[in-house]
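Q: Give me the 3D complex with FDM.
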Amino acid sequence: GVNNNDSRGALIVLEGLDRCGKTSQSSRLFPYLEGLGHSVELWRFPDRSTSVGKMISAYLSNQSQLDDHTIHLLFSANRWEKRSMMETKLKAGTTLIVDRYSYSGVAFSSAKGIDVEWCKAPEIGLLAPDLVLYLDIPPEKAAERGGYGSERYEHLDFQRKVAQYYQILRDSSWKIIDACQSIEEVEKQLREIVLDHVITCHKGKPLSLLWS
Ligand code: FDM
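A: Here is the predicted complex, encoded as C-alpha cells.
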C-alpha cells in the first residue's frame, strides 16, 4: 500500500436524502481507493447486524413501534458500539467510507420535531468525520427516481423536512455535490475530493471529536 507506518486513514461520510445516490457512490469509491493501494472499508449506519441494529431495522420496517426519543438514542448507541473499532481502524491506516452518520441521526429526528441540540447531545464524543460529502438533490427529484421502499421515512413530505434540517446542520467544511448530475459526473467529483482528504490524513492530520 501507499501508507506510511504512522499515517492514519480518513473518516469520510456521505450524507443526503433517500435516493440521492449515496449508496451507489460509496460502493464506487471503494474499488477506486483500493485500486490506488489504500486500505479502505465501506461502512454504513444504521449497522443492522448488531442487536441494537436489529431493533432499529424492525422499527424502520414498521415491525415495531418506538417513542421518537428512544429510536433516536438507539441510532446513536449503534454508532457508539462501533466507535472503538472505528478508531482502531483509522489509527491502523484504514480509510472508512461511511454511508450516513450523526448528521442523519440529527436531521431525521429533528424532522419529527425533536429539539436539534437535544438530538446532537448523544453524538458528542464520537469521532468527527474528516470529510462530509453531501449529495444534494431536491426531495421532489429524489422521489421521481422511484425506488422509495416501504420503510418508515420514505415519504416525500417527511424527506422535505429532513432536507431543511440538513440545511441547518451543514457548515462551510461540507462538500456539497449536485446529485442531479449523471452518476459518472458525481463519481468524478467525489474521487477528486476524497483522494485529497485521504492524502491529508496520511500526512498526520489529528483525529477530532463531534461536534467540532
Ligand atoms: N436514519 C439513519 C436515522 O433516522 N437516524 C440515523 O442515525 C441514521 C444513521 O434510517 F431513513 C434513517 C435514515 C433512513 C433510515 O437508512 C435507514 P438506510 O441508509 O436506508 O439504511
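A quick observation: DSSP finds eight helices and five strands in the chain.
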